[in-house]
Design goal:
This protein is an alpha+beta fold and about 260 residues long. It has a single domain, classed as Jelly Rolls (Sandwich), CATH 2.60.120. The chain contains nine helices and twelve strands. The chain is globular, with a radius of gyration of 18 Å. The two termini are about 25 Å apart. The N terminus and C terminus are likely disordered.
Length: about 260
């Protein structure tokens, strides 16, 4: 999935494989030219003020509702897929059960069964204009996600703190040269195309609601941005992992006794 799948320090060589549209955006001149033209207004900005996005207040006002549905899922945390089992590209970032993800959708590919298990979360996600991808991101105690970067500046990333253990500052993210810490019920918005890394230096799990949404761009540049996002949505890096998400969700639905409801 185009969710920071390449390590900025240890990217595998693309020489032995044809480069599809998603990889072309991650590497080479095309990405730099397109982003320079479309997003010149923001320059190298890393974090964005949540107050600049009116919908953030709606989500934050109901963060405990979202957390309630999350806590129901976590009763059977072992059944939530590991990220690398959904997307093999994530193996450069994680192993074992250190990073679990419960997906609602990715670039239009929806996991209906998962949305049905968290109906209030699914409802609230509809308040986010241009929402493309959404999941619960669950980090194990003492987990460090090494430096990596997202594919394309045309989406921004939103995090809502749901379970943030203390002490303050022990759960944090670096984007570029800027560091922020999560807080329960509070939002972070950032450009994940910058190199970034994550720490959970606690002995408890850290969970955020993780959303990608279309970056606001003036017309007519917005049309080109939408076209590029449409192309990304139809690459195998999106469709194949979401097939696995739906398969896992259907399996859980067939075994309600073992599945949190």
């Amino acid at each position: 999935m185009p969710l920071n799948t390449e390590s900025a320090r240890n990217s595998p060589s693309p020489i032995s494989k044809p480069i599809g549209p998603d990889k072309a955006l991650q590497h080479g001149v095309l990405r730099r030219l397109v982003e320079a033209a479309l997003f010149f207004r923001d320059g190298e900005k890393t974090f964005f003020e949540p107050e600049s996005f009116p919908w953030v207040a709606v989500i934050e006002n109901e963060w405990t509702t979202i957390r309630g549905e999350l806590e129901t899922l976590l009763v059977h945390r072992e059944e939530i897929p590991n990220f690398q089992d959904i997307s093999a590209a994530q193996r450069v970032l994680t192993e074992g059960d250190q990073w679990k993800t419960f997906w609602f959708c990715a670039y239009g590919e929806k996991a209906e069964e998962n949305c049905a298990r968290c109906p209030e979360t699914a409802r609230l996600l509809k308040h986010i204009p241009g929402m493309k991808s959404a999941m619960f991101s669950i980090l194990a105690p003492r987990k460090h996600i090494p430096e990596h970067r997202g594919m394309y500046k045309g989406v921004l990333r939103y995090h809502l703190g749901l379970i943030i253990p203390g002490p303050e500052g022990s759960c944090r993210i670096r984007v570029g040269n800027d560091v922020r810490c999560w807080q329960n019920g509070k939002s972070l918005i950032f450009d994940d195309s910058h190199p970034h890394e994550v720490w959970n230096d606690c002995d408890s799990y850290r969970v955020v609601l993780f959303v990608d949404f279309v970056r606001p761009v003036f017309f007519p540049f917005s049309l080109l941005n939408q076209l590029i996002i449409w192309i990304i949505a139809h690459t195998s890096s999106i469709t194949e992992p979401m097939d696995r998400v739906r398969k896992n969700a259907r399996t859980a639905e067939k075994h309600p006794a073992a599945s949190p409801r």
